[in-house]
Amino acid sequence: MSGPAPWRLSAREVAAAVRDGSLSPGDAADAGFAGPGARFEGEVHALLASDASARKAAAARVPRDGVLAGVPVLLKDNLCTVDHPTTCGSRILEGWRSPYDATVVRRLREAGAVVVGKGNMDEFAMGSSTEWSAFGPTRNPYDPSRVPGGSSGGPAAAVAYGLVPVALGSDTGGSVRQPAAFCGVYGLKPTYGRLSRYGLVAFGSSLDQVGVFARHVGDVAEVYRAVAGSDPFDASMLEGPAPDVSGWAAGVRGLRFGWPANLWREGVDGAIVAALERAASWLERAGATRVPFEFLPGAFAVAAYYLLATAEASSNLARFDGVRYGLRMRSDELATLYTRTRGAGFGPEVRRRILLGTYALSAGYHDAFYLKAQRARTRIAHEYAAAFARCDWMLMPVTPSLPFRLGEKTADPLAMYLSDVFTIGANLAGIPGLSVPMGLEASGLPVSVQLVGPADAEPVLLRAARALEAEGDERNIPPGHEKEFAWPGKR
Amino acid sequence: MAIDRAEAARIAELARLDLPESELDRVAAQLSQVLDFVARLDELDLEGLEPTAFAPPHAALRADLPDGRTLEPGAATASAPEAEFGYFIVPPVVENLEP
Amino acid sequence: MAWEAVIGLECHVQLRTRTKMFCGCPVAYGSEPNTNVCPVCLGLPGALPRTNAAALAFALRLGVALGCTIRAESVFARKNYFYPDMPKNYQITQYERTLCEGGALPLAREGGGRAIALTRIHCEEDAGKSFHPERQGDRRWSRVDLNRAGVPLLELVTEPVLRSPAECAAFLTELRRLVRWLGVSDGDMEKGQLRCDANVSLRPTGSTTLGTKTELKNLNSIKGVERGVAAEIARQTALLDAGERVRQATLLYDADHERLAVMRMKEHAHDYRYFPDPDLPVLRVSEAQRAEATAASPELPWAREARYRDALELPAYDAAVLTESRDLGDYYEACVPPGEPKLASNWVMTEVMRVLKTRDWSVAEWAARVPAPRLRELLARVAARELPGPVAKQVFAWFLEQDGSVAELLERHGVRVAGGDEELLPIVRAVLDENPGPVAQVLAGRDATFGFLVGQAMKKSGGQAVPQVLQRLLREELAARTPRP
Ligand SMILES: [Mg+2]
Ligand SMILES: [Zn+2]
To answer: Are A313 and A210 contained in the same domain?
Structure first.
């Protein structure tokens, strides 16, 4: 076939080519591995598992009429798959093979997508840099000395460098949006309860949501459409159909966006503040109105989150005990079998969070920590509700900084936690957030902004993201940084 | 809110985590740091607010019917570290009895 | 000093659902190990629970029957502790906002009709089973089967108001009858479908403060409860009499050796870190569901037992036996001929129950073979003195093997019942004529000889006469032959 190499195509273009017979699913799936994969993967390490024969077998089974026919996808390694191991980036699950597919994975396959492998991640999705993977860190494809963000760093980096056009991650406190921002791709965390969590290995059950990575807004919409919607195997889902995102290109004329500038008055990188200003002016140019207001600082959300998410995690991760699956450390005694297996199987950050969560729930501290954090969660949700009475979505940073260096924050857990200060609120309130790339800043690193809306505002967020996508093009990437790269430019 | 070494050890025991002696102090210090940070929740006015435990309100219950997920015989123990005759094998489960 | 026992029970009732509490795996007893399991009840990574509607309906039925307050919104919580039987290392149960609160179970027979107050009833999932240590040389290990993991349970907790081992046994017996009556559980203690723990403390008789309590586990039969609690009361009494203190402890009752053993516990072993399960929405009970549970609620066993005693005037023993199960009571009532409750009781308690026992049939199996109207027809003819006893028993035996009404069966087997006076009177007269000696004796007041005449008349009827009819005719004829003074 003529035209751009298959790996440069959008997911929708791949599916169209597969449907009209001009591209085979096998070639589509292999393209990313041959070109950009060969060039970047060795250094970036986005993949944990990629079984070429499983890929071939999956490609051979693709329903040619599917909306995602032949579209290669990478899955964060906490989504259960029958054809690849599911490790959650942890020694404790090394080599474990799920006997079932996660619901979102099943839906992707039914739509024709080909699972090409599993993406690296912070162990059990606990981290913001993908440095806490037991199988080695992922590096930022724009600068290998820097982190790709986390915890879905592998999928984000893979989409960025061109291995796959789309990927799924999970977002408990920003784990899709933050790596999307660091890698310069779109990253959607949907409304809680719209994407099934069945088969997503739980971290903080009341916060976890599967999210979508893509290089194009339209691809985000297409994948969301394929995987969203209620599932009888997940009782925590919202009733009724997921919102219709087919109008993602409808524009933003007449809509209002919130501008909580107090959030970035200090402590936020200048390049990010500049990107916010740029995004606001583009949105205004597209016909939306800016509504300035003050908003509750994110530090409260971080505080509540690190009690609630860890409390839930301490319970969710109790099942990894060396009895039914995964790692087992030998012992003649049950008690030490548990402690040794879990001590050896979990890395330092997971251990730290299990301890924190255990503490927050334990007798005598439950009310002072867990219950108070739940009340704070209610308060934070009220703050968002009040804001959305005045606007259709809020424009805000994804992260306070540009991608940081490997090792920069691993010794200081709190500093790492605070890199999620702008993303965690949406998880606590159960509302959608979308990370939107705004091009590369002067040093060549991606810079992004975040759109946060009320529950089920995905259609509006996608319209706003599309308005920004349509405004932006290579001219908005600072001069001297148009180097040839996976970044396909904004179409 | 400081967590000392003994407290860290107590929590580790509760969580069934083998924590190396050498790590206890460091973990205790890191947990204390996080708890200090978390104390800022006291600045929020939470008067009269109900705790939010889970986001979605009420899903329908499941009909009392098979759902096709029951595994084939042998599949449950296929990935077990140790299994025998279809059972998971663990070190002796004994009630700690005093006569 | 005299001591008074204060006992509270915690009972677990396995619900009779088709599938488990939070997944679609079958609830079955005796399957191959780890075959009734799926990602959910195995606690595999990523699996999520979803509540079984039938379990809730059963819970409501029991709650309504016991007069509990039903919460419109209750909450599932996680109880966190590590145990190899428990795949997730937490149990999904209810803690702070439970489904049912309060209520009481009346003890119809023992305890002078005392009602035992309940604290709460809640839904939870069962654990699997571990088979205790195997040994081979130095190696020791346990086997774990998770087939039972996730089976729906109701936990029912009483207030500490039971006073004696016998009362505990009566409570369990009554609870077992109720759960079977309502169809919510088979209540088979051998299969672990009804299990019980007891909290026992002593205090000086007349005191109102509570003493230190111990927890008694593993009381897996009604006898076991009675004996275990008695043993613990004896143990505590001996301690207190000796001036020692009772220490808080968990004890296991070993039914085989009838002895108690103390379980050693780590000091913080009970920090269960309960919190609401974020995977499950609030359990909401609508007005309609509550109304449905109330409507589905039958006449309760203790009420029916009282009715049998008071309205049907059955002996207390009969009333108790016939209300042992709802099927039996229903069957009994359906075969009572007008005005003959005791006759039907006799037949059900002897003939019917004998068959149930020898054939190991349920009442339903019996009723499928011999529907109540069929037995009622037979009993009606017995009551009307139309069938001699042996013939009635013979018909009953034919019921088991053959179809057909009573008349059809008699016809088919060529059994003629000499029922009417006009048929029997000639026989009676002939017997009196042929036996002048005995007649004279009877007339002279030797009533013992009357039986001989009855026997002769029966023989002459070819065994087809109803004895009561023969007797009446004989008496009438004899009276006619009595010489007038
Ligand atoms: Mg219980
Ligand atoms: Zn199951």
So the answer is: no
